[in-house]
Structures are given as structure tokens and as C-alpha cells.
Write a structure and sequence with these properties.
It is a single chain. Strand 4 and strand 5 form a beta hairpin. With about 230 residues, the protein is an alpha+beta fold. The radius of gyration is 21 Å and the shape is elongated. An 8-stranded antiparallel sheet has the order 5-4-7-8-1-2-3-6, with helices on one face. The protein contains 7 helices and 8 strands. This is Anti-sigma factor.
């Protein structure tokens, strides 16, 4: 077994633990949604998740293939964490000897499947939309398979009583509105049409300060807050 797994829990950063939980499939609900969005948008956090995928995959090096007994997954679910997904990680540890090699193989199989899913959700296009002084930073990532553009407001204060609108500028053409960013959460998702997807490659994204509800004219009317080049993921 790899020595990489022998890391004291105190040495883990908060992001490390979150990445490990995401890799092992221990998150659920809004925590899962937020972590998956962040893995798509935040390259550093995405790399942490991939590192944990590799660490967990290495657990199979010293384990001979074993077919888990029928109903084992249901038994683990019912007995190990009836209240909270985190209890499964705390009780199983790195290699749950009390459950035997069959359970370990089952956990490894699930981990590898999650790793494949994360790779399938890798961004097709990305953009770091930033003000010149980096007082505002917005990250965007588009996944072709889902047709979803995920946007995260990372740095900067929002103006009370105003909205921030996202724009796509392709081939020097007039800006096209992609929509208004959410106020109650850092994350916003937009469904991108097939026609719009063709404009992403080599384009530019920008965010502008607009009246509530967005620009009334279909073009930016307020200050351009930040701009960023779209690059391949």
C-alpha cells in the first residue's frame, strides 16, 4: 500500500478533506452540488480531487479481487452511517478490516467510478473574468456533455440594488447576454444553446453592472466590471 495514505488527519487542510470526501462519494445534497461545481471551476481544487482519486485507487494494489456478498452495500449503508454520510468515513477508516476485503473492494469500485465521472465532467472551456486590479474575480467553466456554464463569483463586493450581467463577446461582434448572476449564492448556472456553444472558442466573457433584472437594452448599459479570455479546458 502506498505511503501517501499515511497522513495524520491534523495535516489535512479543509480543502483536502472536502476533496477526499467528494472523491469517496461521502457528500450529499447542497454540499455535493457546491463541491462538484467548485471542482469544475477551481483548477486547484479539481487537482486535489484527482489526487485523492489516485490515492484511493492505489488501495487496490495489495488487495486480490473479491466479489462482495449480496446485500453488503445495503448492510454498510444501514449500519455504518444511518445519520450522516461523514460517519461512514470515520467508521471505515482507510481500509475497513472489520468489513473484510469484500467491502474494501466495493468501496474501491465506487471510488473509481466517481473518478471516471469527475473526468467526464471536466470543463470544455474556461474563463477567469477579472478586473485589472483583481478587485473583482469571476470564474466560469463550460462542460460540453451537460451544456451547462457554471459561474462562480469569487472576489469582490456586489452593489446593493444593482445586478451583475454576464456577456459573451465572440469574433469582435456585439456582446450577447448570457444572463444575470445570482445574488443569494456565489454560483450561477446557465444552459448554453448549441448555437451559442460555437461562439465560445476564442471568445471573451465580461460582467457589467446593470439595473435590477439586467440590461433593458440587450447591450451593456453600466460599467464593465471585469473581462476574461475563454480558453480550452
Amino acid at each position: 500500500m502506498s505511503d501517501d495514505m499515511d497522513i495524520p488527519e491534523d495535516d489535512f487542510s479543509r480543502d483536502d478533506m472536502l476533496a477526499a470526501e467528494l472523491s469517496l462519494g461521502l457528500l450529499s445534497g447542497e454540499d455535493l452540488v457546491q463541491a462538484e461545481r467548485r471542482a469544475r471551476i477551481d483548477r486547484v481544487f479539481g487537482d486535489l480531487v484527482e489526487d485523492w482519486d489516485m490515492r484511493f485507487a492505489q488501495m487496490s494494489d495489495d488487495i486480490a479481487p473479491v466479489t462482495p456478498p449480496k446485500g453488503l452495500l445495503r448492510k454498510i449503508t444501514n449500519e455504518a452511517y444511518p445519520d450522516s454520510p461523514k460517519r461512514l468515513w470515520q467508521q471505515l477508516g482507510i481500509l475497513p478490516a472489520f468489513l473484510g476485503a469484500g467491502a474494501a473492494a466495493l468501496v474501491l469500485f465506487a471510488t473509481l467510478q466517481i473518478g471516471i465521472l469527475m473526468q467526464a465532467n471536466a470543463p470544455t472551456f474556461e474563463a477567469q473574468i477579472a478586473a485589472e486590479d483583481e478587485s473583482i474575480i469571476v470564474a466560469a467553466a463550460f462542460v460540453e456533455d451537460s451544456g451547462v456554464l457554471s459561474v462562480e463569483w469569487r472576489v469582490g463586493d456586489r452593489v446593493e440594488g444593482r445586478d451583475v450581467e454576464l456577456w459573451l463577446i465572440a469574433d469582435g461582434n456585439a456582446p450577447v447576454s448570457l444572463g444575470v448572476l445570482n445574488k443569494g449564492t456565489k454560483f450561477t448556472e446557465f444552459a448554453i444553446s448549441q448555437d451559442m456553444r460555437r461562439l465560445l472558442a476564442g471568445g471573451v466573457m465580461a460582467v457589467s453592472d446593470e439595473p435590477l433584472g439586467g440590461s433593458p437594452t440587450g447591450a451593456p448599459t453600466g460599467t464593465i466590471l471585469a473581462v476574461g479570455q475563454i480558453t480550452a479546458g
